[in-house]
Amino acid sequence: MSPTADLTRLSALDLAAAMAAGEVSSVEITQAHLDRIEAVEPKVHAFLHVDPEGALASAASVDARRAAGEDLPALAGVPVAVKDVLATRGTPTTCGSAILRGWRPPYDATVVRKIREAGLVILGKTNMDEFAMGSSTEHSAYGPTRNPWDLERIPGGSSGGSAAAVASYSAPLSIGTDTGGSIRQPAALTGTVGVKPTYGGVSRYGLVALASSLDQAGPFARTVLDAAMLHEAIAGHDPLDSTSIDAAVPPVVEAALSGDVDGMRIGLVRQLRGEGFQPGVQARFDEAVDLLASKGAIVTEVDLPHAEYALAAYYLILPSECSSNLAKFDGMRFGLRVGDDGQRSASEVMSLTRDEGFGPEVKRRIMLGTYALSKGYYDAYYGQAQKVRTLIARDFAEAFARVDVVLTPTAPTTAFRLGEKLDDPVAMYLNDIATIPANLAGIPGMSVPVGLAAEDGLPVGLQIMAPAMADDRLYQVGAALEAGLVELYGHTTIEEAPQL
Ligand code: GLN
User: How far, in Å, is the centroid of ligand 1 from the Cα of 258?
Assistant: First the structure.
């Protein structure tokens, strides 16, 4: 490695190799990323909290262990950014909300604990839509994140900060969470790789819940193999999460290394392509499918007949669950407390706190969910939505009886402009039309970059979905696409991103 190499341009794998070869220290790598953050943050605002002291201390400890000849995990010393919805002991965790301003959790989320055990260096906490509600990161109480490809555009959401941190080379890796698309959609809109693992594949302990039956944490990276390595580091059974699956982690790293799709049966979802998708998005998708076919994949069409009801079912199930999950933010236990003057009653303080602490989208969903769960409406709304959910899971089961994976474009359009959909919640919700079905069915999904849309030069993502606990198939197809596109264009999508 040349002494002038820009460490922030390297993949996690290359950084790990350079450290193992003694060419560079984790402190040097970490400092390079902290410098990069300082340079680009005024434009991008991917972070809510940067932790230089904590990061450099973890880096120094990895370097010391390496110098002592210790056998270290594969990613030891590599920096990572973590979405601010995961509890990090002693450092601020706000979920992008004013109501948690100043809250410092007394414990680490399991994902965070695993990251530390893997020797990864946490650079800081990333920006997000408040409590992960949104598709643009504009619903953060701390101001929006901007898309590194075009600073007038949104980076997607709700994990927009984690996506932008990786796309702007402020971190080689990051963690997001995905309840309806919040990892895959921002990955698509920033030209990065983003994965929602199988529901229950990664522990939710310490992940501040939006909708407990849908939430799942997962990796962002600039390459498929990097994402696989981070996925492997955070996955696995956790007795602290009762929905965690007690089974071996799917062989995601081997799959990413193989990238073999010869004979693999690939299904294109008839209901989730073509109409309603931007022509340049559809064109890149079709080209990527041809590429897989040229590598021996067997391409057919499949139906998800109930996919058209997924969005409606999701926007009943999610508000119902979140109205219950967010009841604990009452000014008594965490963060903000308003109007506690010794005169007012506890319930007055609670309502003043919730009025000031929650933004409009959060209030909208709490009200929707409370209504949907109320006596007399429960069966008509929540009960009905749960039945639709079962039908969608069955659709997938039938599709997977015929094919190994199903593909759709990740998002209907490329990144839109800041403010464009802010006053129209339904237009915002429609962004997740292709990603929500996987959350409802509990199956894994990946967005992999497949080039730029002709009409606007912005990145396009292709979504791969597989049966539960077959996460490795995502990496197999993702790696095949990544390699095929490099053969075709000579570089990956993210390498076309403008220099900030
Ligand atoms: N955009 C979707 C929503 O607003 C998904 C959010 C998420 O996955 N956290 O609910």
Answer: 32
Catalytic residue among 158, 320, 323, 447: 158
Look at residue 2 in the predicted model and tell me its pLDDT. Answer: 60
% of the chain with per-residue pLDDT over 70: 99
Mean pLDDT, residues 63-74 taken together: 98
CA of 454 to the centre of ligand 1 (A): 27
Q: Which residues line ligand 1 (CB under 6 A)?
A: 132-135, 158, 178-182, 210, 318, 432
Told to judge if 135 belongs to the known catalytic residues of this protein, a careful annotator would answer no
The predicted pLDDT at position 378 comes to 87
Distance 304 CA to ligand 1 centre (A): 21
pLDDT, mean over the chain: 96
Ligand 1 atom nearest 183 alpha carbon: 8
Q: Catalytic: 196?
A: no
Tens-place pLDDT, residues 147-158: 999 999 999 999
What is the distance in A from the centroid of ligand 1 to the CA of 215? Answer: 9
User: Is 182 considered catalytic here?
Assistant: yes
Cis upstream peptide for 158 (omega within 30°): yes
- Kindly list the structural domains of the chain, giving each domain's residue range(s) and its CATH number in brackets, ordered by start: 8-306+393-496 (3.90.1300.10)
25, 136, 182, 323: the active-site residue: 182
Residue of the CA atom closest to atom 10 of ligand 1:
133
Tell which atom from ligand 1 comes closest to the C-alpha of 182. Answer: 8
Best of 83, 177, 182 to mutate for ligand 1, by most ligand atoms within 8 A of CB?
Answer: 182
pLDDT tens for 193-221 read 999 999 999 999 999 999 999 999 999 99
